[in-house]
């Protein structure tokens, strides 16, 4: 009973220390607040959006007014409504693509690091092969081959981003598997599934979580780039990337900034905020930190 209470109090102390280190980063705290607000607005976009994002409700390319706070786009749709729905799509792509790449990378990294030998060589050589291709070129080729759309973008980004996670997990597993408690489990004949997912994986969660924040930011930027080029989320569905598509025109860049500034600013703030949070998490989970 005492051991259980000691373990619980120890976990609370560690959690409190991690939170204290995290909130030392003022920019990360501000970034977390912004991300929370953005996610809330995106999830409840139907409640906050004044108009249907795909419906023509005003004049073509009209500037901001009291009725249309961010103006209307080239075909008369409300920019604010499309911004809220576009933010929802971009955040979903970032999180979903990161989830796909993390699951693939964690499984391959665990298998490679724990079993080693021939399996490790095969997985790592395949990882090196994927990483040897120019990243953006690989994404563009895959997007050109498959039909553009939400699910396609998520799968493409997920299957391209996993090598970094796999190498990170493998490195941690190589260190953890030599620990006395892992060796004790092996000697005791514990199932490999238990050792991998109940002993080793929980001790690699912190670096995976930190790395995942950077993957979310990269996936959002990639979605924006693909949609900007017309190879991502297809109109009339709004995303932050295809809202920027109209900015390819010099006349819009110079005379209608309300069409491209709002989505551009939101992308920049989201990516910066996610990176600040990732930096703070890295420092918070650092065992050598104070």
TrEMBL record:
Residue ranges annotated as transmembrane are 27-49, 89-114, 258-278
Query: Could you confirm whether the keyword Manganese appears in this record?
Result: no
**A Pfam family recorded for this sequence:** BPD_transp_1
- Which cellular component, as a GO term, is one annotated location? plasma membrane
Q: Give the membrane topology.
A: Multi-pass membrane protein
Family, per entry: Belongs to the binding-protein-dependent transport system permease family.
Q: Which PANTHER family match?
A: D,D-DIPEPTIDE TRANSPORT SYSTEM PERMEASE PROTEIN DDPC-RELATED (PTHR43386:SF1), OLIGOPEPTIDE TRANSPORT SYSTEM PERMEASE PROTEIN APPC (PTHR43386)
Which named protein is this? Peptide/nickel transport system permease protein
């Amino acid at each position: 009973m005492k051991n259980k209470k000691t373990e619980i109090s120890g976990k609370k102390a560690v959690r409190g220390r991690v939170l204290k280190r995290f909130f030392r980063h003022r920019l990360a705290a501000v970034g977390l607040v912004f991300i929370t607000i953005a996610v809330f607005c995106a999830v409840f976009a139907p409640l906050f959006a004044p108009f249907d994002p795909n419906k023509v409700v005003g004049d073509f390319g009209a500037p901001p007014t009291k009725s249309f706070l961010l103006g209307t786009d080239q075909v008369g749709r409300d920019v604010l409504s499309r911004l809220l729905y576009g933010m929802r799509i971009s955040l979903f792509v970032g999180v979903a693509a990161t989830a796909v790449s993390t699951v693939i990378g964690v499984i391959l990294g665990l298998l490679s690091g724990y079993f080693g030998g021939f399996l490790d060589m095969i997985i790592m050589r395949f990882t090196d092969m994927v990483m040897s291709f120019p990243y953006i070129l690989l994404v563009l080729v895959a997007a050109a081959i498959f039909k553009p759309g939400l699910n396609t973008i998520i799968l493409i980004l997920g299957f391209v981003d996993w090598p970094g996670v796999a190498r990170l997990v493998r490195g941690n597993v190589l260190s953890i598997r030599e620990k006395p408690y892992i060796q004790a489990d092996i000697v005791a004949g514990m199932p490999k599934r238990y050792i991998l997912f109940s002993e080793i994986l929980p001790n690699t969660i912190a670096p995976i979580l930190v790395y995942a924040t950077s993957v979310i930011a990269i996936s959002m930027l990639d979605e924006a780039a693909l949609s900007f080029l017309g190879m991502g989320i297809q109109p009339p569905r709004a995303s932050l990337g295809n809202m920027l598509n109209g900015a390819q025109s010099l006349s819009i860049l110079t005379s209608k900034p309300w069409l491209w500034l709002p989505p551009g600013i939101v992308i920049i703030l989201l990516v910066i905020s996610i990176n600040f949070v990732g930096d703070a998490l890295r420092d918070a989970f650092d065992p050598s930190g104070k």
